[in-house]
Amino acid sequence: xxxxxxxxxxxxxxxxxxxxxxxxxxxxxxxxxxxxxxxxxxxxxxxxxxxxxxxxxxxxxxxxxxxxxxxxxxxxxxxxxxxxxxxxxxxxxxxxxxxxxxxxxxxxxxxxxxxxxxxxxxxxxxxxxxxxxxxxxxxxxxxxxxxxxxxxxxxxxxxxxxxxxxxxxxxxxxxxxxxxxxxxxxxxxxxxxxxxxxxxxxxxxxxxxxxxxxxxxxxxxxxxxxxxxxxxxxx
Length: 235
What we know:
The chain is an alpha+beta fold. It is built from 9 helices and 6 strands, in the order βαββααβαααααββα.
């Protein structure tokens, strides 16, 4: 069963939602039969990267809030993150466009490291104050999860995976995604936002029941008494 997640690298609830999904999967009986696929979504595709501006300052400027108001409002999100074992530091988080970061996640998919890459980028942005639009930073982060340096450099400099990013965003519009995170289970069930834990648990069970009904799995009883022969001629 596939779970597709539309998400942005600079979305705090996307990181929180990732942890909630992981908790639900850890308890899920059939977790070894679940495939995750991260889909690109940009909350602000026209965002201009500014390493000299942190997220708190940017929020205050764009919303017309005082810094005191901004800290108070974001403190609720920081506390939610703590409940999931995450540390958010909005005073260090660098305002950045995420187009390149999404291309790197697509590149990681080619080597089966998409989830690790997504996790590394989220931590880099929310906890470490790294610029997730900076080429050298992205090369370093990609290398940390096992992607070849030259491959990252060529891909990001040529924007060769931009079309894949755009396709994800286009697809999100077709299925009615209005905000992220947005989880789609087996293309039949959706979870919008970092919902309470029980929502993830219940939706996983419902999606699996539907999936199993349409994709019956052969149950094999093994033991020591039943004789058999294999394809190699062993009997």
